[in-house]
């Protein structure tokens, strides 16, 4: 049996021996009581890194986004968000169910909204209109293929948001991939937003956990909302220890994942019938379309699985491959060979 090369997501990473050691040695207490020293350390560390006064540790990226949105809105409000954003696409309708808001969804190439688009979507104050109270951006943008939000665009949107009294939340599940790709410090990105979430359990390799950073008062509000949503954890220091280890050891290596994504994209681009825009591969996500192949996508997907290469599907014909710390350069070279075997057989264009 061939070894499995799991490119379905960077959520697939497993804790390394060093991380497991940190987990084993973690000091713990009851975090609902604010008494877990390792959670407290992680929260202080994250806040400092992102240049905000406070942070909160939560079980998932979804909960991080949801408590942030809830803390910044009232039921009946409208939020401006890109159509493919995780918050509206992959969180089970939570913003509507839990915050009672309605999303105003705008489509944008590469997932990057323009300031003009956002400005035009902010509702004028009128009794008929829901108040626009929040703009949510995603950096990197998952569904667009890990694209990076230009800082200039974020700043323009910030200026409009400030002048119209609208708050901003960043779904920074993969913010450190953007940091790695651009060299822009995390606190510079964070300074444009009231709240920023980021995940420890994706490319950073922790088994569980996300953070939200914000002001002291908003984090205090989010602690109450987290409790309401069932996210108050007890001896969570064993998870926070993994998160601290991830922040200390696994940021500097993200460029390896980006190089591997480039390598994979170059390999895919050479396979006749595969549609891939190499320019969109800016970080660790590679989207490619197999709609131009003679074999059906379902068949290709299953054959790739049989070859030991696991990818996920974003549309019936678009496959996503995500590089991460459990996938080496050699794995990518092997994956390209397998992709060639599967995709080049009878791969004449229609
Ligand atoms: N993304 C997952 C799936 O849910 C699609 C993945 O495999 O990429 N924001 C962004 C931008 C995300 O990509 C994700 C997870 C989340 C939030 C949610 O994080 P979790 O899964 O921890 O709730």
Put the structure in a nutshell.
With 350 residues, the protein is of the alpha/beta class. 41% of the residues lie in helices and 15% in strands. The protein has 2 domains: 15-249, Type I PLP-dependent aspartate aminotransferase-like (Major domain) (Aspartate Aminotransferase, domain 2), CATH 3.40.640; 253-343, Aspartate Aminotransferase, domain 1, CATH 3.90.1150.10.
Structure description:
- This protein has 350 residues and is of the alpha/beta class.
- The chain folds into 2 domains: 15-249, Type I PLP-dependent aspartate aminotransferase-like (Major domain) (Aspartate Aminotransferase, domain 2), CATH 3.40.640; 253-343, Aspartate Aminotransferase, domain 1.
- The chain is 41% helix and 15% strand.
- The protein is built from 14 helices and 12 strands.
- The strands form 3 sheets. A 7-stranded mixed beta sheet has the order 2-8-7-6-5-3-4, sandwiched between helices.
- α7 (151-163) links the parallel β5 (132-138) and β6 (167-171).
- The protein is globular and about 60 Å long.
- It starts with a strand and ends in a 6-residue tail after the last helix.
- The relative contact order is 0.17.
- The structure holds ligand TLP.
- Residues 9, 11, 60-62, 65, 86, 90, 138, 142, 171, 173, 199, 201, 210 line the site of ligand TLP.
Mean pLDDT: 96
Uncertain regions spanning at least 5 consecutive residues: none
The CATH architecture category of the largest domain equals 3-Layer(aba) Sandwich
Q: Based on helices, strands and strand pairing, what is the structural class?
A: alpha/beta
- The CATH superfamily label of the largest domain reads Type I PLP-dependent aspartate aminotransferase-like (Major domain)
Proportion of β residues?
15-25%
CATH topology of the largest domain: Aspartate Aminotransferase, domain 2
**What characterizes the major β-sheet?**
7 strands, mixed
Gross morphology is: globular
Following the backbone from N to C, one meets helices and strands in this order, namely EHHEHEHHEHEHEHHEEHHHEHEEEH
Q: What's the arrangement of strands in the largest beta sheet?
A: 2-8-7-6-5-3-4
Number of domains: 2
Number of helices: 14
CATH class placement of the largest domain: Alpha Beta
Ligands (ions, cofactors included)? ligand TLP
Helix content: 40-55%
Give the N-to-C terminal Cα separation: 33 Å
What integer value in Å does the Rg equal?
21 Å
